[in-house]
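Researcher: For the record, we're logging two predictions in this thread. I'll number them. Prediction 1 follows.
Model: Prediction 1, sequence and structure:
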Amino acid sequence: GAPEVEPVPPAAAAAVVTRAASARLLGPLLAVVDAGALTLPPESVAAARVGHEDAMLWCLHVETRLLHVRRWFEAAGGVPHLVVKGAAVAHLDDLDPSLRAFADLDLLVPASHLTRAVEVLVANGGHRSYEERRPGFDRRFVKSVTVEYADGVQVDVHRTLCDGTHGFRIPVDRLFDQATTFPLGGEDVPTLRHTHRALHAAYHGVLGSAVPPLRTVRDLAHHLVDPDLGPEVLAEEAEIWRGTAVLAQAVRETFETLQFDAPAWRSWLETVTVDPREAAIVAPQREESGPVGRAKLSALPEGGGRDRAAYLAGVAFPTSAHLRSRGLGRGDLVRTSVDRATRALSR
């Protein structure tokens, strides 16, 4: 028979449950316990089950809000949208939806529909976390706009899938053209195709986070062991996104974090060539954003002309309404700019 698994001491078990809860991984933890691969004290298992039940009830609440949002968009004449992360990953990419908890609702919309989508959400009881930096800035430059509701549900309306240079490179039209669906509440809800969900996991793990979220690393590991998503598929798509450097970093950190068998990807890591200039673009995007938000010089649109000038104007001269919504004044903006410039010069 299988060897008996030594129980985890109570103090360590409590820490394991706390860590799993903070990472929204209580479902996988309980699956391991139920399979007999990990033994926790009864009180820790009970705490994990209560926490997981609460997480699943919240997921159901968020999914219900998703169905409401789709009705609101339809009533407003239609807003094209794709669900990204969260519910889509739970229903399509995990062994069971109950293994993949999520906290909010993420929707990708075409840039031309972003303002309208936010207006619809606000008209139905939501409020923006922050006012727009300058008129037209959102639909041209931001990753997403956050709308919050009194019950705690947060809807992130995305223009693209990440901040910075790589966000401008993502072929958003391609994501809509190749979209798929997942079933929810008797509906077929639109979302990213499999390849794009996997690449999004890689981007989410690397860009905008100094340390990849454990939940996202687990998502990517699921994709890397899928025989339908070998390097010949996923790495080819990454080239279209001009994101080979991002994918290589994400795959490397996934192997460093988790133990799993994906020999084709280990071979790819040993042979892939990452342009040093591309690696230099990734590095500053992993830094935490300052108090003025994620708008920063590392996120300048590539090329020249009006886009770069408009972006810089939005970063340097946001409206007073935007600053007030963040609890900032002009003096805070100046100090932040000086701090950033000093750090850049020191590097």
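Researcher: Logged. Prediction 2.
Model: Prediction 2, sequence and structure:
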Amino acid sequence: MIIREIECKSILTRSGIEGVDYAVNPYVGCGHACAYCYATFIKRFTGHSEEWGTFVDVRMNAPEVLARQLRRAKPGLVMFSSVTDAYQPLERRYGITRGCLEVLAGYDLPVSILTKSSLVLRDLDLIRRLKNPDVAFTITTLDEEVRKRFEPYSSPIPARLEALAALVEAGVSTWVFCGPLLPLLSDGEAEMAALFGGIVRAGVKSILVDSLNLTGAAWGRVRTVLEEHYPQLVPHYLSLLPHRWPYHNALMERAQQIATRTGLAIR
């Protein structure tokens, strides 16, 4: 891992995500090294040529910059994070995300956290001090072998489900992002029913579902994983490249039916 400690001029940025006003990204890059990650586009704007998942820039002054920006920010929802994971492994050492949450605890702004790491429980004390916080976990499969191959340095799925249950028990609003569901690996009826059932048992009532987007640099990394572990699936994934939306629409219909049977609200 190539780690650089850097200074930033801005950390609270306007978001283009529907329903989200601001994004806070305490790090540039992500140590989870997920094969399907869409955020690799940031390499074009940050001067990085390294392979995704092998570099992280730590925005050392992020809490101080956030405090300055919040003094003149208009009300709105703040999201952690849009192009990194605020609780990736280096957060345990640097605590940049925790520092930012300490700043936000003094403001009347709702905060939403999306992560793949059970480390978020470390900051439960701060999360409970925020206005209308919610914490979401990305969970794309219950199969740990699949998880290790596509999300090698993320928290194990059982740890995420246990963290969700602890957050529910603490009274924190939670939801799960089931995306991207992986064709022929986690998008089947049996696999989705098991996944949704595990989410319900953790006490979560709401999910968001998405399909795999193979445009851009993601396809090269996904193909590498497939060729090493699931070579028989490569032709099927290739067939989806130009036909994502028919597949996507069929997947959403199937997910809606399973979620309804399971008792989950779905977006």
